[in-house]
Write a structure and sequence with these properties.
The protein is mainly β. It is built from two helices and 21 strands. The strands form five sheets. Strands 2-1-10-7-6-13 form a six-stranded antiparallel sheet, with no helix packed on it. The longest helix is centred in the first third of the chain and has 34 residues. It is flat and about 100 Å long. The termini are far apart. About 21% of the residues have low confidence.
Length: 427
Amino acid sequence: MAEITSVHPGFDVSPVVAGLIGATVLVVSVSVTVFVWTCCHQQAEKKHKTPPYKFIHMLKGISIYPETLSNKKKINRIRRDKSGTAKEGGSGGNLLLDAAEAGLVGPNKAPDGPPQVDQLPIKVDYGDELSPDQSLTPGGSKTSSPSSPGDDVTLGDLTFSVDYNFPKKALVVTIQEAHGLPVMDEHTQSSDPYIKMTILPDKRHRVKTRVLRKTLEPVFDETFTFYGIPYSQLQDLVLHFLVLSFDRFSRDDVIGEVMVPLAGVDPSTGKVQITREILKRNIQKCISRGELQVSLSYQPVAQRMTVVVLKARHLPKMDITGLSDPYVKVNIYYGRKRIAKKKTHVKKCTLNPVFNEAFSYDIPAELLPELSVEFLVINLERSTKNEPVGRLVLGHHSASAAGSEHWQLVCRSPGRALAKWHGLSEC
């Protein structure tokens, strides 16, 4: 009988190696499964996720989000005349919702080193020119405005409606129309009105309508929906409407304002229609927006002025997180013309930023009596237009006694750097 030989496999695998291989395969399988599940879950969330906006803007029944609002986009508008008929078009149809803050952009980082020096093309006789951005007066209004509402001028009426969406916990405000607005442009004998609305006292919700060209009877018909406002808190809120006339070459004219406390409004049973008279805005009613510490000095021999933005404190909360991303924009005006501008770095997530940034300007001494330095504290916004926090003016157009005193002290103390705290205002 033939001998039976044992057949051995071509390779031997120890139990330890086999266990490691099995564990590796198991880990890889689980990782791939988790990765695939995560991708599918995120994709499903994106389809059903509520847009992360503070409000929904309905223009003629069409949803508009803040990202899509820009001065370059155009839409076909329907304008209604007094007979009630609808007409399409009208003065280009520009959507100028952010005209008031059109010049506020994110800051550019400046290199480290000595203070930056501007060589200014200053002439003594060019003070009559208007600034393309804005012009200054002690009250913060425009001196070149051809027509400002006086005490004996009626400012018209504003019609709007208030409603509340209980399932979504949302306050719905529809700005419908205004009647009998005053003439703000003598050249066209008309106005270019738009409305800025703020919910007080938090001021977290700030919206504005589009600009309607050359009309004293504007029909806006725009709806703003504010989410996350419990019905129980409505009694503590106040709607503030600011009616303005757009001016392309200078600061927009303030026509008037309307204040509506929601304590006397009950939208629980349905939409409430409200018509209020537009009242003259009280310029003296400046709201504190924190404080800014600045230092100024002037060297008469070198004819150089140095402006130092030191720090700010008690700034209002501008973000949902309860903080802000502030920076300061410094504008130098001679008369009503802006001759220089600079900006600081952005300070992230703080209400008490420390800047310590200096800017130097070559300015002849004979121009100091007509010079003004404007400080604009601005909150950086990534998804929408940058929002101004507060304003301070020192010099010829200073609106406060402290600002005028600081400027005069600088002029009387050549070579000395004088630092002071000043309150910021919205006016």
